[in-house]
Design goal:
The protein is α/β, with parallel strands linked by helices. Helix content is 49%, strand content 10%. α5 packs antiparallel against α7 (148-164), α9 packs antiparallel against α10 and α10 packs across α24.
Amino acid sequence: MVEEEKKKKSVDKASLELIDKACADEVNLAFDRAESMKPCPIGAVGSCCKNCGMGPCRVPLPKGKEETPEDKKKRRGICGATAETIAARNFVRMIAGGSAAHSDHGRGVAELFIAAAKGEAPGYQIRDEQKLLALALEWGVEISDRSNSDIAVEIGEIALAEFGRQEGELLFIKRAPLKRQEIWRQQGVVPRGIDREVVEIMHRTHMGVDQDYENLIQQGTRTALADGWGGSMLATELQDILFGTPAPVLSEVNLGVLKEDEVNIIIHGHEPLLSEMIVAVAREPEMIKLAESKGAKGINLAGICCTANEILMRHGVPLAGTFLQQELALVTGAVDAMVVDVQCIMESLPDIAQCYHTKIITTSPKAKMKGAVHIEFNEHDAVNGAREVVKSAIENFPNRGKNIRIPQEKHDLIAGFSHETINYLLGGLFRASYRPLNDNIINGRIRGVAGVVGCNNARWEHNQAHVAMVKELIKNDVLVLQTGCSAMASAMAGLMVPEAAAKYAGKGLAEVCETVGIPPVLHMGSCVDNSRILIAATAVVKDGGLGDDISDLPVAGAAPEWMSEKAISIGQYFIASGVYTIFGVTWPTEGSKEVTDYLFKDMEQMYGGMWAFETDPIKAAHLMIEHIDKKRKALGIDKARERVLYDMEMRRELDKV
């Protein structure tokens, strides 16, 4: 493989090293499949409908000329569906898929939460009592002299009821700024129930039902909000109460965290329910003794994708890598077991594992694979299930061959920046507040805030867009909040340690970071934890001085290497919450100018947020900066203000106001 070809696949040295090894081992990777399998140019832009047995119907734009009214009349499916209807249906079905994935995760957490509160799930317990009681007060759950267990059961049952709610409004909608709530009510997009909104999209996009693209996208917006302010937020809140609210933790990232002399277990997926138990079991003395009896010096846990982010934030378990590094982890030849649950798991894993010695272990009844061992997760017996998984990995350790290569690449990172942690770091224990952040945005040291999130995409150079965009943003004094694989990419580039502020950030942002002691890029968790960013944005609004709605804030969002339906749902709920959001790589409605214009222009008039698309990460970063500057100007904080040092007499005058 020539050097130029390798450069196109990843900016990460560890990944390039193992891509080279896979080639020598004759192992086919996602990178290779992306190279040999070109995307369908019609389906990629949303111009193909396969929602009934008469299709698929393809309605591509005319080549080499501008579309005429006559061309437009001909661009119809067999049932008469227009290009606009087809593009909108495809787009909102992606929202339904993404919302269902996040929200089903939330449902599983709620079910475990109730079982743990009732004492029916040994090994689990309420770890954040303060957050439990705060949520009880928010939802009107009586506290008085009731036990935490009784309170938790009621909270869990209320949370579970949100999925099947048929009318009214989701409870967490009331967390949004009042102005934002009114916008949603005026637009008719307040979610009634999480499951109901997903089902309604599937009904409306069935052949012969909803054939108005604006009406379809309205339901897509309501479903996305049911994700961000519903299922995802429930998952985050209940996980924090059950497993502990994240606080800053030092760890490491990249494939170099694997160890040649220890049993390596990789935990991969998106639900931390079983992985919490695996972390506990792997530290049991009898398990370590068993590993030593097999010739290993210990047990080494590492994570991939968002389960990784969950156990990183709460236990400091190192990150092995992102979505596109899951196959590469097996290529090291050093992974004794890869334990997977749901979402973003490649079906190629068992085939690649056969080339080495790794056991692929599936744990969810919703996600099985041919060629994998299935050890089903049961919340009522999670400890024993975790022990079976860990023992299976230990027993496999002696089967390692000699074809082992673990890259040396790994980097330090600090993760665990929950909303509560940021609040504390900025204001202290007794004056926890976003006021210092607001003040530094107002005085211009911090230009604005950007959320950069999302996946990797095999059709783009791995990690390149994430790293390039984030570096450009912090260089221009934009504080960056990250989740998911995007956060891992920045960590691999050395951007998630406090020292990165002096090296990469602009003067103003660096000054703030050095004063507070934080990195210029904050790791906020997994992809369901994008709800933490919504809560943080709302807290900034409530603290005052930067408008009365999220859409007034100098903030922007991006997913420069997105690939999953979850990303589309996340983007839509951020836009509906008032955030300008830009995606890279590809855009799924380019086959319809009307639908694309509606998303890229009309949405801003309706919600104060809108979509944008730009494949160049540097150009995309500057589009975000332009938007941030526009919001600063609207707030009247675009010009530098003279700093005034107040003496005691001047402070007394302020107190009288």
